[in-house]
């Protein structure tokens, strides 16, 4: 496990974000990783939270209202948002955090067209359907945050499917923000770079993690709580004049083409 900086628990850091207390917020993919950290952050700010996830056991363990659904079933996904909103007694916020990624890093010549069509379709329609459902039920001001990725703005070799799916998330964010602005519903996106969820820590060797971290100007990778805080900010009234925007949370990774050795800039 790579931990370069101590992280204060939310109970120690009081952020007191305006406009989260008593708000009803649905988090997709809220049973693990960034989604779970977001649920915990929102609860610590006094919000009522519900979760949509395909992992029923993990969702149950979160201890909030939840509905089981898989993003690949777009109509079931939309219905699960509605069920969650009913369980909360209304909905003020939505976090489109779950992603469906079928493509591995694959050269152009080996790209499976059906796979690409499915990846773009499922992720795009999932965000569209969930936001359609949530916005349809919002009776006053509201906020939606979509979780994109640095891969949606910057290309990585062979990651065609993940990158284009995340680029679509960023564009959908802008389109929905424009349409929903007159109703005071804000739509924004967050683009994390490598975030040390349990799944990432399991999937990347310590050497790969260390190499990735060495390229980050701030010198550490995000914890799920770092991304959760950014999502919480965008949901809160502190961000009431911000809509259609992408916040890149990457420790400065996208700022420069230089990749100095940490020792050179200490
Ligand atoms: N972790 C990173 O380094 C990183 C970097 C950039 C962007 N992101 C994005 O952040 C979001 C969350 O990623 P994470 O790393 O926290 O993931 P994670 O694997 O830790 O957790 C994902 C959660 O979503 C659920 N989920 C996954 N696929 C689903 C599906 N098809 N239907 C319903 N639920 C599903 C899982 O059960 C799990 O609870 C994703 O959109 C991901 O693309 C993550």
Features:
binds nicotinamide-adenine-dinucleotide; alpha/beta; 266 residues; 14% strand; 9 helices; globular; Rossmann fold
Task: Provide a descriptive summary of the structure in words.
- The protein has a single domain, classed as 3-Layer(aba) Sandwich (Rossmann fold), CATH 3.40.50.
- It has a seven-stranded parallel β-sheet with strand order 3-2-1-4-5-6-7, with helices on both faces.
- The protein has nine helices and seven strands.
- It has helices spanning 33-44, 56-62, 74-88, 113-137, 160-180, 198-203, 206-214, 224-235, 262-265; strands at 24-28, 48-53, 66-68, 93-96, 142-147, 185-192, 246-249.
- Bound molecules: nicotinamide-adenine-dinucleotide.
- Nicotinamide-adenine-dinucleotide binds next to helix 1 and helix 6.
Fraction of residues in helices? 40-55%
Major pleated sheet = 7 strands, parallel
Chemical compounds bound to the protein:
nicotinamide-adenine-dinucleotide
Mean pLDDT: 92
Across the major sheet, the strand order is 3-2-1-4-5-6-7
Number of distinct beta strands:
7
**Number of helical regions:** 9
Number of domains: 1
Measured distance between first and last alpha carbons:
23 Å
Q: What is the name of the CATH architecture?
A: 3-Layer(aba) Sandwich
Here the CATH topology equals: Rossmann fold
User: What is the 3D shape?
Assistant: globular
């Amino acid at each position: 496990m790579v931990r370069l900086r101590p992280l204060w628990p939310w109970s120690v850091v009081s952020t007191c974000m305006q406009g989260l207390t008593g708000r009803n917020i649905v988090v997709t993919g809220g049973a693990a990783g960034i989604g779970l950290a977001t649920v915990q952050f929102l609860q610590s700010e006094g919000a009522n939270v519900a979760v949509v996830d395909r992992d029923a056991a993990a969702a149950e363990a979160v201890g909030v209202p939840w509905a089981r659904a898989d993003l690949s079933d777009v109509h079931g996904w939309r219905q699960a948002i509605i069920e969650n909103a009913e369980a909360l007694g209304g909905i003020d916020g939505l976090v489109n955090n779950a992603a469906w990624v079928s493509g591995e890093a694959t050269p152009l010549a080996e790209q499976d067209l059906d796979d690409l069509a499915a990846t773009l379709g499922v992720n795009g329609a999932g965000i569209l359907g969930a936001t359609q459902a949530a916005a349809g039920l919002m009776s006053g001001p509201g906020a939606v945050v979509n979780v994109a990725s640095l891969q949606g703005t910057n290309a990585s070799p062979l990651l065609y499917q993940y990158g284009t799916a995340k680029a679509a998330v960023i564009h959908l964010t802008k389109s929905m923000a424009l349409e929903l602005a007159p109703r005071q519903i804000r739509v924004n996106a967050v683009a994390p770079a490598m975030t040390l969820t349990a799944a990432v820590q399991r999937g990347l060797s310590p050497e790969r993690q260390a190499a990735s971290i060495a390229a980050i100007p701030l010198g550490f990778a995000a914890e799920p709580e770092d991304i959760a805080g950014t999502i919480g900010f965008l949901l809160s009234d502190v961000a009431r004049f911000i809509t259609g925007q992408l916040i890149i949370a990457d420790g400065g990774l996208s700022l420069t083409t230089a990749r100095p050795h940490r020792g050179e800039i200490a």
